[in-house]
Amino acid sequence: MNKCAIIVTYNPNLEVLKNLCKQLFIANVKAIIIDNSDTINKEALSKLGNEKCEVNFLNGNEGIAKAQNVGIKLALLQKMDLIYLFDQDSIISPNFLSLLSKPLDFKKANVSAPVAIDERSGSELPSFKVSSFGFIKKIFSYNSSEILSVDLVISSGMAITAKTFEKVGLLDERFFIDFVDFDWCFRCKEKGVPIYIAPNAIMEHSIGLGASNIFGGGTIHNYQRSYYKVRNCFILLRQGHVPICYSLRMLFLIYIQQLIAIISLKERKNYISSLYHSTIDGLLARFGKRN
After folding, report:
1. Is a pLDDT exceeding 60 seen at residue 127?
2. Residue 240, SS3?
3. Residue 8: pLDDT band by 50, 70, 90 thresholds?
4. Given this model, what pLDDT does residue 152 score?
C-alpha cells in the first residue's frame, strides 16, 4: 500500500519539521511538503528533499486549502492509497500512524482523525456530531474504548483514503483558511462518507490566542485570522450541504468572540477594522485571499 503525508508549511521551525518527517520515514510514509511561506530560506527547506520527501514551493501564501489541494493532487497522481494531512508543528509518536489508520477500510471512501489535545491547556478539543437541523453535539473521545463515528473534525492529523477524494472532491479554496476542514466534512456527511475518531491516536494541537467560555466558547485568533473566520461564515451560508442553523450559530458565536477581542485586547482598532471589512466582503461575496 502506498501512503503519504501532506505537510503544509508557513515559515516553519525546521527542527520540528525534520522530526515529523523522521517519524513518517520510519513508518514508510512519504512526505509531501507544500510551502506557503511569503519569505523563507528555500535552500534550508530544500535540503529536506530526498526520495522520501518531496518539497514544493507556492512562492507566497496561497491559503491552506490551495496548499492541501496541490499536495492531494500530487498524491493522487502518484497513486497513493492513503493520505495523511499534517500541520508543520505536528508532533507524533512512533505508533501514531498505525493507530490512526486502524479504523479505515482502504477499499472504501472513509476518514479517520486523532484525539486532539490543546497544548496550552492539556484539555481535549472536541469533535462534533451534527443533526439534520444543524444542531451540534460535542464528542470527547479520550480514553474511549471504542472507535467513534463523528461528523466534524479538524484537518490536522486526518487519514483519508484516496477513494474519498473521488467521491467528495477537493477542498474549497474560496475559504483560504478557517472552515476549510468543516466544510469538507459536511460534504463527507452529504455523500455518506464516514469519519471516525481513533481514540488511541493522540496528537497535541495549538489553536489561536486563547479560548472564550461565553456562549459555548471558541477560540480567539489575531485580527488578521479573525477576518477569515467572520467572512467565511458567509460562504457557509451559501453552501447547500451546510445546515443554515449551523452557519448562523457560528456567525453569532464568532461575532461574540470579536466583540470580546475588541474589549479585552490591545489591538482594538485592528479588530474593529477586521470585523467591518470581513462583514462587507462576506455580504458582497468577496472570497479567496484578502487583497
Report:
1. yes
2. coil
3. very high
4. 97
Q: Are 93 and 200 in contact (CB under 8 A)?
A: no
Task: For residue 68, give every residue at least 6 positions away whose Cβ sits within 8 Å of its Cβ, in sequence order, or none.
Answer: 6, 8, 34, 85, 155, 171, 180
C-alpha span between 236 and 216 (Å, rounded) = 19
Q: Which residues of 182-204 are buried (b: 16+ CB within 10 A; e: fewer)?
A: bbbbbbbbeeebbbbbbbbbbbb
The DSSP bridge pattern shows strands 159-161 and 111-118 to be: antiparallel
Provide the CB-side half-sphere exposure for 1 (13 A, CA): 13
CA 181 to chain centre: 5
CB 158 within 8 A of CB 111: yes
Secondary structure of 51-109 as H, E, C letters: CCEEEEECCCCCCHHHHHHHHHHHHHHCCCCEEEEEECCCCCCCCHHHHHHCCCCCCCC
Q: Are 230 and 279 in contact (CB under 8 A)?
A: yes
Distances (CA, A) of 11 to 122, 171, 218: 25, 22, 26
C-alpha angle 245/150/288, rounded to 5°?
Answer: 55
- What is the tens place of the pLDDT at every residue in 128-148? 999 988 999 999 988 787 899
Burial class (CB in 10 A: 0-12, 13-18, 19+), 145: exposed
- Among 200, 218, 201, residue whose Cα is nearest residue 209: 218
